[in-house]
Amino acid sequence: MPRLSPRRPADLDGPERALYDAVTGGPRAQGPQLFPLVDADGGLRGPFEAMLRSPAVGGPLQALGVALRYGSSLAPRVREMAVLAVAAAWDSAFEREAHEAVGRHVGLTEDELAALRDGAVPALADPVERAALDLTRALLAGGRLADADYEALAGVLGERQVFELSTLVGYYATLALQMRLFATC
After folding, report:
1. What is the mean pLDDT, run by run of 10 residues, along the chain of 185 residues?
2. pTM for the whole thing?
3. Is residue 177 part of a domain?
4. pLDDT in the model for residue 35
């Protein structure tokens, strides 16, 4: 049972409505609609509903998500594998539902999706994809890497992608934690 009462568009004040519009009219709403951002009554789904409680924090948080999904240097397959690894680690149904749809769209196979859903490592021939998933799993396991492991992963990914990937893992873990706390999914 959700712990937050649903907020409908007609009930939102100015800053809340601006955040709602940023989510429903921004990059997430452009292109193919791979998963619904709103429910049948127009309320925000998943982590976005909770963000309405504090637009001053929720706005920058959702903007970070936009930057990670649409402005980072991470390849779409890398990004979606990392999100799905977070979803598996946190048992986040909304992240799994939403990002399996996006993952299919960017070329993840059903076998790869099944492995990620189970918390396993899919067979990956691409060294960048493998390094990114190895880093993601290390971050999810506590974030400690031996210097040699860091150097090896950064050597494949580069410092920019290491930074972006670590931010992505933290962002989606934050969303999973909030959705668990507020029982929004």
Report:
1. 88 97 90 82 92 97 96 97 98 94 96 97 96 97 95 97 98 96 84
2. 0.94
3. yes
4. 82
| Positive/negative CA dihedral, 41, 59, 142, 136 | positive
Contact between 79 and 72 under an 8 Å Cβ cutoff? The reply is: yes
The residue out of 70, 97, 112 marking a domain boundary is 70
In a domain, 4, yes or no: no
From 22, 50, 70, give the residue that closes a domain.
Answer: 70
- Contact between 92 and 30 under an 8 Å Cβ cutoff? The reply is no
Compute the distance between CA of residue 113 and CA of residue 80 in angstroms, rounded to an integer.
10
Of 76, 73, 75, 97, which Cα lies nearest the Cα of 87?
A: 97
Please name which of 114, 115, 126 lies closest in space to residue 76, comparing C-alpha atoms.
Answer: 126
* Residues 8 and 39: beta-carbon distance below 8 Å: no
Give the whole-angstrom CA distance, residue 105 versus residue 88: 19
